[in-house]
Structures are given as structure tokens and as C-alpha cells.
Amino acid sequence: MTPAASPRLLEHPTREEIRLEPVLHAFSDAVRLRIVRELAAADTELSCSYFVLPVTKSTTTHHFRVLREAGVIQQEYRGTAKLNGLRRADLDALFPGLLDTVLAAAEAQSARQDADGAPDPTGA
């Protein structure tokens, strides 16, 4: 991992350090998958405060940390905001088609839940 030189710099795995198991683990939680879907849809960096999630602030922080440490997102402080960006290029280079497949599957699941009237596990 790239070491943090100061409290304002966050550790991220380099492209070569990203492994499939932590990435799949990061995708396995409904809240984290929701974050990934929103980042993919926005196609830009979003601040942590942009996300309205049905969990506490400390749990939200945990989910962002799991995504960052797995190499799914890049986080960077800009002023007082922590911006989050999807590491699409890295994920696509390492695991071709994985991100698009996961996003498509999540979209299909969401559509099924909407059609069935089932509640969204992420509270969306």
C-alpha cells in the first residue's frame, strides 16, 4: 500500500497490490455496493456527505475504508471534503468485465425488487 505521509493522506493499494478476494468482499455488502453504484452512475468524484446511507456515520466510514483498502475507490482530501472516486481503470485492467458485470447484476436485482415490491436492503 502507498503509505500515508500525513493524517490527511490515506493509504491505497497500488494497482499491482489489488487482489480479487478483497474486491469481491467489498462488493458483497449492500451498502458498499450502493456506494459503488452511485459512484459509477455519477462518473465523477463525490464527497462522503453526498451519500445518504441507512447506517451510522461510523459504519459509513467503515464501508468507505473497506472499499478504499480493497482498491475499489480512491479517496482524497480537498479542503475539508473527502472525495471518493471509483478506480474503474484499475479494476478494468486487472479484472476485465468484473465491475460492469457486478453493476449490471446489481441493477437487475434492484429492478426485480422494485417489481416485487420488496424493500431495498440499503434503504434506497
Structural write-up:
The chain is built from five helices and three strands. It is mainly alpha-helical. It has a three-stranded antiparallel β-sheet with strand order 1-3-2.
Percent helix? 40-55%
Describe the main β-sheet briefly.
Answer: 3 strands, antiparallel
Strand order of the largest sheet: 1-3-2
Give the topology string: H per helix, E per strand: HHEHEEHH
Task: Give a quick summary of the entry.
The protein is mainly alpha-helical and 124 residues long. Helix content is 49%, strand content 11%. The radius of gyration is 15 Å and the shape is globular.
What's the SSE blueprint?
Blueprint: H1 20-27, H2 30-42, E1 46-47, H3 57-70, E2 73-78, E3 81-86, H4 88-94, H5 98-116
Antiparallel strand pairs: 1-3, 2-3
Helix pairs in contact: 1-3
Highlighted features:
11% strand, single chain, 124 residues
